[in-house]
Amino acid sequence: MSDVDILRAKLEKQAAARGFLLPHHGALAAGAPDLHDAYLRMYNALTVTPRVLNDHEKECVWLGILIAVEEHVGTHHLELFRQAGGTDTEAEAIVALTGQAASLGAFRFGACSFPDHLPTLDPTQAYDRTITALRGPLPDSLAHLTLLSVQAARGDTAGIAHHLRAGYALGLDESAMVEALSYLIWPRGVNCFLEACEVWHGLMVAGDVTPSKRFAIWRDMPGQGAFRAEGGTQVSGFDEEPD
């Protein structure tokens, strides 16, 4: 087979396997085939290969993310949501929760700006009451897990911190929280995930949450953050393969 025939066969196989083919796959397969292969491996590891969340939990989180980032091409996640048993009532709850995520900032503004007029307004308690009112049949843990990703997608650091604290209080698996946040790498980019992890790391260092032994290794690693040209350090090592 010629290179052109191999390319056509590869794209036809992918389209047949998935039931659809997004345009960027053709561009990558034709113009950067090694990157396309790496891209597919990354996507499979990110959201196809089972990790901690079950299929229903995973697609609830994805639905919240799609609404938060206004991602119109993620329709396959709606089909997967249905296949995992997702209902109209659950979908409505997720859309409502995602829409109300901005209320945390509104409550904080009201409490900070009008303390003489709203002396009893507690932003976090008010926000949590809206979650309880809107989550419908969703378990509290799944509502907070979904909103963790939604607030990270919005770049709301206070919201990220709130739902991380809630996750620990509810006994959520830390790897489940990593999984939910890591989905943002696809529609929002790795920096969105990085910034959420900065908030998480800060909570651990400050003692606001108590990590497991495994996550304490991450907490205690020195020198985390952007590169600083100090002490003769140099940028290097990006070509190293992981152990």
Overall description:
The protein is built from 13 helices and no strands. The protein is mainly alpha-helical. The chain folds into two domains: 1-49; 54-220, AhpD-like. Helix 9 (140-154) packs across helix 11 (174-182) and helix 12 packs across helix 13. The longest helix is centred in the last third of the chain and has 17 residues, at 190-206. The protein is globular, with a radius of gyration of 21 Å. 26% of the residues are buried. The mean pLDDT is 92.
For CATH, the homologous superfamily of the largest domain is named as AhpD-like
Low-confidence blocks of residues: none
Task: Report, as a whole number of angstroms, the end-to-end distance.
Answer: 36 Å
Strand content: under 5%
Q: Could you estimate the helical fraction of the residues in percent?
A: 55-70%
Number of strands: 0
Averaging pLDDT over every residue, what do you get?
92
Task: Kindly list the characteristics that best describe this protein.
2 domains, 243 residues, mainly alpha, AhpD-like, single chain
Quick overview of this protein structure:
The protein is built from 13 helices and no strands. The chain is mainly alpha-helical and 243 residues long.
